[in-house]
Design a protein that fits this description.
43% of the residues lie in helices and 18% in strands. The protein is built from four helices and three strands. The model has no long low-confidence stretch (mean pLDDT 88). Strands 2-1-3 form a three-stranded antiparallel sheet, sandwiched between helices. It is of the alpha+beta class and 128 residues long. A hairpin with a 5-residue loop joins strand 1 and strand 2. It has a single domain, classed as 3-Layer(aba) Sandwich (GIY-YIG endonuclease), CATH 3.40.1440. InterPro entries: GIY-YIG_endonuc_sf. It comes from Paenibacillus catalpae. This is GIY-YIG nuclease family protein.
Length: 128
């Protein structure tokens, strides 16, 4: 494939939207969850699958139970997604708007699920 075509494909990929939203990683052994947001849900799912295949956990909050039960007891579950308003990203500043939406949605899901202590791996927010 010629260089120019590769460059065009790379640019098109970089400007395309990926599915974004909120997901949880659930421990099927004890029911604990870690609730997270992602600008690329498919990428987040692939990261978990890779960690399971290589038995290399990079999520500190899960480490103790990962060592105890193994990576295969953790499952990826999509909770909510944000639909892009357009197919392509024309301005990088648009990403910040979407990131703010993901952050706000994450806050709502964490408030709803309360994934702390015996229920989950998320850290409680510090009180001011």
């Amino acid at each position: 494939m010629e260089k120019q075509r590769k460059r065009e494909l790379g640019t098109a990929y970089a400007q395309s939207f990926r599915r974004m939203g909120i997901y949880q990683i659930r421990n099927v052994e004890n029911g604990k969850i870690l609730v997270l947001g992602a600008m690329d849900l498919d990428g987040a799912k692939n990261r978990l699958a890779f960690m399971q295949q290589t038995n290399m956990n990079t999520v500190f909050e899960l480490q103790q139970d990962w060592n105890k039960y193994g990576g295969s007891c953790f499952v990826f579950e999509e909770l909510d997604s944000i639909k892009p308003r357009e197919e392509h990203l024309n301005d990088r500043s648009e990403l910040k708007k979407y990131q703010a939406e993901v952050d706000a949605l994450l806050e709502l899901w964490i408030e709803k699920l309360q994934p702390y202590d015996e229920k989950g791996y998320n850290r409680r927010p510090r009180s001011n």
